[in-house]
Structure prediction request, 484 residues.
Amino acid sequence: MRVVVEPSRYKIPLARPSIGVAGKTGSWRLERPIVDNNACTRCFLCEIHCPVNVIRVEPETGVSINYDYCKGCGLCADVCPVGAIKMVPEE
Amino acid sequence: MGLKLVLTGNYSIAYAAKMARVNVVAAYPITPQTSIVEKLAELIEGGELDAVMIRVESEHSALAACFGAALAGARVFTATSSQGLLYMHEMVHWASRARIPIVMGIVTRTLGPPWNIWPDHTDYMDQRDTGWVMSFAVDNQEAFDLTLQAFKISEDPRVYLPVMVGIEGFILGHTTMPVEIPDQSAVDEWLGPRRQPYVIDGSDHLALGNLASPEDTEEFFMDIQNAMEEAKKVIAEVDEEYSKIAGRPSMGLVECFKCEDAKYLAVSMGAWSGDLKEAILQLRDEGFDVGLARIRYYRPFPAEQLYERARGAKGVVVFDRAISFGSAGPIFLDTLASIARYSRKTPYVKNVVAGLGGVNITSEDFSKIIRKFVEEVESDALVPFEWYHRRGG
Prediction:
């Protein structure tokens, strides 16, 4: 199957997504997820479920969250099977 | 020259998809389309066509599957009818606005309720504003030719829009006639490899359909309109090139049948144009200067060509097998707008809506309607809109 990609002279509704195209969305946050990495079982559910892809789970260090872009939706806290993530109101 | 096969309209479309060497077919069965994709399944199963048949749970999914495969670089084909086409309608817009080449066969069938499997053009006309290039065949040979050409038009960088090819269910769909199939090697050389403006196959981070500003969005749509204008040239070019392979003359967007010197011009689209041609021959024998401009492409609408054909005529009668309820037939509206676009002086233009729900309209009916139309024009008593309906026969 051969495909020739030949650009159009017209506009195409395509975009290249990148972190933070809408600015640092962390400022939208009303509640901050706080992680207890001692309780964390490294199940990766929070990383998989994060809708903005700002959670990383490392086997050694546990969960880290990029608060510059985390909007505080609380999905990670909701899916955590051991209650290791708590949502705390922002100051 | 290739083969001559005796094919139904549906099989003609299936064979055209085969000659285009489609990679992916996804479809959901619906009368009267089903035998197109049944034939393709048979060709794939028999090893005559190297393609993947994706079975899906609905027409919406059928076009979604085709769309995904097309995004990834596959040449795709699907077909549907009537309610199925309506169910697919959201994806129809996705394909054109994403500028992804796709070819689809539409085997027209009346919309319900009441339940009805006979053909008219209402399901097809419902796709009018989707941004697809839309052609419509008069016979099985043309169904084959238009479908094969659709791949070339759709994949032209000046167009990059999906193309739908219409035929009437049963009247063409399930009746046979000899169809000339060109040589595969000639088709391969003419059609070339799949072309598209971008590929989404996981090798690069691309997102389609992101939020865009009102201004950007409007510019995307302005480009579709520009591409439609370009498509008029591309269609004529492709038809011309294809005529060399096929060994038959090209017709472009509109077929002109005895229309050069016609004082009275009929405008129509689809299989019943065959009956209309018979009526025109009969009326010519009776001394009426009648001709026919037959729409082969409804989108882009051949405005210039129709104006050129209509400008010298005293009267134009437009036959529609669909209606925009509360207004008139869609071809009539486009024809009137086309003429008015180029001239303030318009001939008498009449709309006859007929054949809805699959009511059979014969050459006798056409002769009767046109005789009456000429009388109306000559006595300056035009009835601008008429729903011609009859029972029996």
In short: The first strand of chain A starts at residue 3 and ends at 5. The mean pLDDT of chain A is 90. Chain A has one domain: 25-89. Chain A touches chain B at residues 1-17 (CB under 8 Å).
